[in-house]
Design a protein that fits this description.
mainly alpha, about 65% helix, about 0% strand, globular
Amino acid sequence: GTIKQKRQAASALAQRDPAEAQPACPLLVDLLEVPAVRIIALRALANLGPGAARAIPRLRKLLGADDAFIRAGATYVLTKIGPAATEALDRCKDDPNPTIASLARETLEGWDRSGSEE
């Protein structure tokens, strides 16, 4: 579809019940490669929470983006995925953007305190 249609679809998925939106996860992962749709796709993946674990490899790639907004979005999705994203989120602890680094550190510390394991 067009960029507009992709943006609308990702936006709708960001608002759906995660269980209902789960089958669209592969599409959302692919949309991370489309700059005009990336932020909305990140929002939709965050909505999926642990169901977005298959996005971790693509999210790792986005952690190297020059744009801090993209890195922040990827980091936020990793926090929503949960302990399965520990390795990728660990990379964010030293991000040059203090907001990203803080989010990663606080999330990882919270997981450690709660005793969550993969």
